[in-house]
C-alpha cells in the first residue's frame, strides 16, 4: 500500500524536477542574452552546468543520505540518454547535425573519454575520495582547455542586438532581467526540494521491491533529470541552433561524469558489492560512445538514419536493464 504512495511521490517529484530544470535553463539563457555573453560560453559551459542541476542535487542529496549508488546509476542512465535520445530527437526535428567546428570536435572527444572514466575508477570495487579528486581534476582540465580554445573563437555573442537608446526599453530589459533571475532562483529551490523527495522515495521503493538503488537511478531517476536537456535540445533543433544542442550534450556528459560524480564521491565514498550492475551500464555507455563517434566521424555529421539507430540503442538498453535484471 505504502509503495503506491512512494511511486506517486517519485513521479510527481520527477515531473516537477524536470519542469524546474527547464525554468532554470530557459531563464538563465535569457539572463545570458541580456548580459551579452558569448554564444561559445553559453553552448559549451553554461547550459551544460544548468541542465545538469537536477543530477547535481540528486547527487548531493543521495550522498548525504549515504545512497551514493543512486547518483551513479542516475549518471550512467543520463549519459546514455544524452548521447542517444537527445541527439536522436534533435536530428529528427531539426535535420542533420554537422560537427565541423574544431571546438565541438574537441568537446566531443572529451565527452567520449570522460563518459568512460568512472568505469576505470570503480574497477577496484570501491568509489573513494581519491576517485572524487581525480574526477574533479579532470573537469578542471577540461574547463582550462575550453578557456584556452575560447581565445581562438571570434567575438560572437548570444544576443548581437545593440543596446536600446530608449530609456523605457532599457527599463523594460532590466525588469525582464530581474524577472528571469527570480524564476531561476525559484526553479533552483524546487530542484533541491524535489531531489530530496526523489532520493527518499527511491530508497523506500528499493526496499519495498528489492531493487538495487543503482538500477532505479539508471531507469527511473535518469529519465526525470534528463528532461531539461531534452527540452533544450528540441528547442535548439527548432531554432536550427546545432551548436547549442551539441554543446549542451557534450558539456552535460562531461559535467555529469566528472564534477557531479566526483562531488558525490567526496561527500560519501562507498564500496561496490554488485559490480556487474555498474559495469553493464558503463559497457553500454562505451558501446554507445563508440557508435556515436563512428557516426560523427564518418561525414562530420549525424543524419536521420543514424539518429533512428541511436534511439533504437536506448530502447535496447532500457529493455535489457528492465527485463533482464
Give a structural overview.
The chain has eleven helices and four strands. The longest helix has 43 residues. Helix 1 packs parallel to helix 8, helix 7 packs antiparallel against helix 8 and helix 10 runs antiparallel to helix 11. The chain has one domain: A middle domain of Talin 1 (Up-down Bundle), CATH 1.20.1420.30. The two termini are 24 Å apart. Strands 1-4 form a two-stranded antiparallel ribbon. A two-stranded antiparallel sheet has the order 2-3. The chain has 325 residues and is an all-alpha fold. The radius of gyration is 19 Å and the shape is globular.
Task: Based on the model shown, name its key terms.
single chain; mainly alpha; A middle domain of Talin 1; two-stranded antiparallel ribbon; 11 helices; 4 strands; 82% helix; 2% strand; globular
Helix-strand blueprint:
Layout (H helix, E strand, L loop, with lengths): L1 H33 L4 H13 L1 H12 L3 H27 L2 E2 L3 H20 L4 E2 L1 H22 L16 H43 L3 H26 L3 H26 L2 E2 L3 H24 L2 E2 L1 H20 L2
Antiparallel strand pairs: 1-4, 2-3
Helix pairs in contact: 1-2, 1-7, 1-8, 2-9, 3-4, 3-7, 3-9, 4-8, 4-9, 4-10, 4-11, 5-6, 5-9, 5-10, 6-9, 7-8, 8-9, 10-11
- Given the C-alpha coordinates, what overall shape results? globular
Q: Just name the CATH architecture.
A: Up-down Bundle
Domains, number: 1
Radius of gyration over alpha carbons? Answer: 19 Å
Low-pLDDT sequence parts: 161-165
Short précis:
With 325 residues, the protein is mostly helical.
Amino acid at each position: 500500500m505504502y509503495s503506491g504512495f512512494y511511486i506517486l511521490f517519485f513521479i510527481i517529484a520527477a515531473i516537477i524536477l524536470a519542469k524546474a530544470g527547464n525554468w532554470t535553463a530557459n531563464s538563465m539563457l535569457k539572463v545570458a542574452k541580456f548580459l551579452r555573453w558569448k554564444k561559445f560560453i553559453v553552448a559549451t559551459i553554461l547550459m551544460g552546468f544548468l541542465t545538469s542541476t537536477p543530477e547535481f542535487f540528486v547527487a548531493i542529496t543521495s550522498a548525504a543520505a549515504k545512497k551514493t549508488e543512486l547518483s551513479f546509476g542516475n549518471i550512467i542512465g543520463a549519459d546514455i540518454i544524452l548521447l542517444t535520445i537527445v541527439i536522436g530527437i534533435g536530428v529528427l526535428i531539426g535535420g542533420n547535425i554537422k560537427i565541423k567546428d574544431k571546438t565541438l570536435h574537441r568537446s566531443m572527444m572529451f565527452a567520449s573519454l570522460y563518459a568512460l572514466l568512472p568505469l576505470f575508477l570503480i574497477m577496484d570495487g570501491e568509489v573513494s575520495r581519491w576517485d572524487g579528486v581525480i574526477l574533479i581534476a579532470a573537469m578542471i582540465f577540461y574547463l582550462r582547455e575550453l578557456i584556452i580554445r575560447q581565445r581562438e573563437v571570434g567575438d560572437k555573442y548570444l544576443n548581437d542586438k545593440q543596446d536600446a537608446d530608449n530609456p523605457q526599453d532599457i527599463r523594460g530589459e532590466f525588469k525582464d532581467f530581474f524577472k528571469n533571475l527570480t524564476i531561476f532562483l525559484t526553479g533552483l529551490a524546487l530542484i533541491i526540494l524535489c531531489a530530496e523527495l526523489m532520493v527518499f522515495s527511491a530508497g523506500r521503493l528499493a526496499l519495498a521491491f528489492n531493487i538495487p538503488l543503482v538500477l532505479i537511478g539508471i531507469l527511473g531517476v535518469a529519465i526525470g533529470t534528463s528532461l531539461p536537456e531534452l527540452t533544450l535540445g528540441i528547442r535548439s533543433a527548432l531554432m536550427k541552433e546545432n551548436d547549442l544542442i551539441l554543446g549542451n550534450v557534450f558539456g552535460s556528459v562531461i559535467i555529469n561524469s566528472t564534477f557531479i560524480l566526483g562531488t558525490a564521491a567526496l561527500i560519501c565514498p562507498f564500496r561496490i558489492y554488485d559490480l556487474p550492475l555498474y559495469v553493464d551500464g558503463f559497457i553500454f555507455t562505451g558501446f554507445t560512445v563508440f557508435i556515436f563517434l563512428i557516426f560523427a566521424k564518418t561525414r562530420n555529421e549525424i543524419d536521420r538514419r543514424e539518429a533512428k539507430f541511436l534511439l533504437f540503442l536506448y530502447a535496447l538498453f532500457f529493455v535489457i536493464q528492465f527485463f533482464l535484471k
